[in-house]
Amino acid sequence: DWSDDKKVRYVNDYIVRHTTYKLKSKESPYTPYSILFNGEGVCEGYALTAYLLLQAAGVDIRYISGHAGGGLHAWNMVKLEGQWYHLDTTWNDPIPNRPDEVQEDYLLVSDQTLSKDHTWNKKQYPQTAQNDY
What we know:
30% helix; C8orf32 fold
């Protein structure tokens, strides 16, 4: 019975609190398996985990690939109340790892906000709402 925005916040917080950003993982760091069972991974794993969990929860979600921080990067877009927003669970996870802390700088943000430090082929993805959620 949760609203979609509550589902998005819950999944974001769960992934961030239970995951350490780590390239040298016990399993492939690019998979939801590594995130959910080993608590470690990289952006692709974070984004695919959010995708699977939110899709199962009935939230309209997309997987996005682009660039951020000087390299390849992956994150998501979610649709709330008829508008699209970006969700970057990786960049919401503080480094060094602090399991009790969740950042929300990249939670439900607009194209304009995300464009400050992320790039992607905007023609391939829906345009977001004008303002952050």
